[in-house]
Amino acid sequence: MNIRTIAATAFALAMMSTLASTAHAAEIKVLGSNAAKAFLEVLGPQFEKATGNKVTLVYGTGVELKAEIDKGGAFDVAVLATGVIDDLAKQGKIAAGTQSGLARSGAGVAVKRGAAKPDIGTTEAFKRALLNAKSIGFVDGTPTGVYLKALFPRLGIADALQPKIKFVDSKVGAGGAAASGEVEIGLTQMSEILSKPGAELVGPLPEEIQVYTDFASGVSANSKEAATAGALIKFMATPESARVIKEKGMVPR
């Protein structure tokens, strides 16, 4: 019996145990970072089909979702940047021992599908692409946005880019803004770009200036469906789920 089969069998047994211990189909609310949307939209329905439970997915930036949690908003599972999950655990808002690493994501460049793709293969080429673009968009206040605002001065192009930069709405995202033509170039997590049908991924930022964000999950300390929430986290850690995460532009953890 290979490792994949063992893992799948262990998960199936755990799932059966969970289902046997509940007298009704549970409904759980998942707060997911926009960067995790691409794989959650696949894994959520797969989990529903496998268990008969209902998964409600709510997306937003990490800042927005953490603010919702801090205000007492109800949720069962959070999928956010690892640092945010760890902070929520320290505050007692994520149940101790339920944190699980999920994926690592890098930032990339988006253009409207069918548009010419600029050369971004080196840092100098990336700089030229931004300087030649008519408009550049990203979401302010996100980890990627904060990084970019510090990166541009380091590259010596902050002043030249300032008139071109547009802070796009978090619900639209930089990928969505590029897809609609709102901006010529969108900068965000690659997984977010891949989740926008009208956007095209040019490629990742050059490695020497790349920024990575780790994502993790955790169960709410106040969840009334903790067993089902925990089962979802186990489901997202299976080899099958890891393949989905990889297909959506992230590196499984």
Average pLDDT confidence is 91
What would the CATH topology of the largest domain be? D-Maltodextrin-Binding Protein, domain 2
Note the total helix count. Answer: 11
- Low confidence ranges: 4-9, 16-23
CATH architecture of the largest domain: 3-Layer(aba) Sandwich
Number of domains: 2
Helix content: 40-55%
Q: Cα distance, first to last residue?
A: 23 Å
- Morphology: elongated
Q: Which homologous superfamily in CATH is the superfamily of the largest domain?
A: Periplasmic binding protein-like II
The profile of the biggest β sheet is: 10 strands, mixed
User: How many strand elements?
Assistant: 10
H-E string: HEHEHEHEHEHHEHEHEEHHE
Q: Please write the CATH class name of the largest domain.
A: Alpha Beta
- Strand portion: 15-25%
Q: Return the structural class.
A: alpha/beta
Radius of gyration: 19 Å
What does this structure look like?
This protein is of the alpha/beta class. The chain folds into 2 domains: about 140 residues, D-Maltodextrin-Binding Protein, domain 2 (3-Layer(aba) Sandwich), CATH 3.40.190.10; about 110 residues, Periplasmic binding protein-like II (D-Maltodextrin-Binding Protein, domain 2, 3-Layer(aba) Sandwich). The chain is built from 11 helices and 10 strands. Strands 1, 2, 3, 4, 5, 6, 7, 8, 9 and 10 form a 10-stranded mixed β-sheet that branches. It is elongated, with a radius of gyration of 19 Å. It starts with a helix and ends with a strand.
Itemize the secondary structure elements and their pairings:
Layout: H1 3-20, E1 27-33, H2 37-51, E2 54-60, H3 62-70, E3 77-81, H4 82-90, E4 100-112, H5 123-132, E5 136-138, H6 143-155, H7 158-161, E6 165-167, H8 173-180, E7 185-189, H9 190-194, E8 199-204, E9 212-219, H10 226-236, H11 239-247, E10 251-252
